Amino acid sequence: MTSFAELRLENVGRRFAGVDALAGLDLTIRAGEFIALLGPSGCGKSTALNCVAGLLPLTSGSVWQDERRIDTLPPEKRGFGMVFQNYALFPHLSVRKNISFGLQMQRQPRAEVVRRTDEAIRLVKLEEHATKLPGQLSGGQQQRVAIARAIVLEPSLVLMDEPLSNLDAKLRLEMRSEVRRLHQSLGLTTVYVTHDQEEALSLADRLVVLRSGLVQQVGTPEELHTSPRSWHVADFMGYRNLLEMTATDVSGGRVTMEGGGMRLVGTASGDGVLPGKVVVAFRPDDVRIVDPTVAGNVIAARVELVEYQGKELAVESRTAADQVLHVTTPQRVARGDDVTLTIDAERVLVFPGDESTEELAKPVLDRVAS
Amino acid sequence: MSGTTAATGRLALRHRLAEHGIDRQLWLLLPAMVFIVGLFLYPFLYGLGLSFQPSEGGALASYEAFFSDPYQRGTIWITLRLALPAALFNVLAAVPIAYRMRGRFRGKRLLTILLVVPITLGTVLTAQGLLNYLGPTGWFNKVLTGLGLLSDPVRLTNNYWGVLFSLIITGFPFAFLLILSYLSGIDPTLERAAATLGADWRQRFRRVTLPLLAPGLATTFCLTFVLAFSVFPSAVLVGDPAGETRVISLAAYQAAYESFDYSLASAIAMVMGAVELGVIALVLLWRSSLYKGATGGKG
Questions:
Q1: Which domains does chain A have, with CATH numbers?
Q2: Phi/psi class of residue B148: alpha, beta or left (left: φ > 0; alpha: ψ in -120 to 50)?
Q3: Which residues of chain B make contact with A80, given a CB cutoff of 8 A?
Q4: Nearest CA in chain B to A100
């Protein structure tokens, strides 16, 4: 297959019946990179993937493979491998024939087809199942067939559309390592779509966070994890505590805020934070339960819900002003306990308030779905 | 003591029956069974019995009478010659049209209605239309002779062709609707997967869609064949009922209501059923060699 140095998406957009499913996507994918497109359902990540694959025509922009424009090519001429969410294995063909399908389409010599198919079957450890039909395999095995079928062609780019979302938790972790291992050993350039931030953080070299068809942030897992650019990204990156507050003082990077019966000091993210309405974000595992005598950011709350998570407890607590705060703590607390919470000012990220801030008042489930 | 044993015995029986899917709800099938027995099984067996009771001769005399007379025997071939091409054409023509109409698009409903309307017309109306359109003084011949393309009108009615056209017009909607539903049961992602693996549309159709559709095609062929094989009104109205379209149901009709030989008529009906079953068995034999499992779609 033709390999490339970089694949450029320029201003790629896709409209469905007058609604932008994806707009203005600019992205350069370098050879060998593992890119994750991350976002809630309906954010445009699968649309983006299908546009790259050629399964959806663009309504604006272009896709370039080095100096060759490829967005007008049909999918079969692009030479990209794709792994589908429902695997899309051919139900009437055996595992072996599913995997050799692409090689036969390329009219490779028979010996070559056999050799490469064998190799791919070995790579995904399906030797014993080669003659079975997909319907006779478990979900994890089907997934491995789907991956083998895509990579046997040694494609210049592998596209994966939520490949692990139909697997149970244990298998998902196993296959995640498998995907990473394959990527490392074969050096395949990969674009991976997921709604699972943990999956994206653990697999990708770079992440693209999408929301309502628009790119929110592009960066390494570390950049996104520690310094999300907006509260939407923070929301998606595990900052479960998102509060609307009023900044009273902004000096340097330090912001002092009030609201919901609390007074907090936090760190401004970017230059856009001004006195007035702000959104405050922090992670449950950055909150600590301490003595009431400690100085700094101090919040009094009552434990409402405790989830056992092994080494730690996930605690949902509520302040006197009815503000719910999520805390992860190694301490054993019980429902009804009064606790004092604290959090370092460096760990409290402050974002400028915008018109979408009112979404914060909605229950989390609605927010994620939107 | 013995009372409890009997009770547990009953319970155990009920559990054993439940294991085989037998429970009290099966009684709901009773009305349907009554209809099947009363309206299908009984007349069939009665006819079968009648066919072995000719007015003169041995038990097989009616069958002998049918098979020894080339004028009667020939009706099998005449009917097959109409029904097989009609069924085959309907299936083959319905595939590309249904294939193009899988997705959602503007005007799909109108187009479907247009394609399905012939079902509602009935054979007689279709026959009238055919006579008006394809007859010696119909538009078709008038236009062609008017343009000077033909010196004499082509005969397309009151012969083999008229009946074939009629069978195609009335049979196509069935084939189309059946195949459309089989096609929409095939997961569209499969073709997209094939495309990313380098298959062009011809290869996608031949290697993925067609193998998954084939069992449905076999079933559709059987149904349209059976419909066409029992052709009767159009064989009279747009055919040549004394000659090349003297179909087998016509032979049965004449035996029953013109010569009042009910035994011969029953025997012809039985032969008719046997030929149909023979063709269906051949098609299903072929079908059994195909993949018949899930096709990933909504079924």
A1: 6-226 (3.40.50.300), 231-369 (2.40.50.140)
A2: left
A3: 196
A4: B197
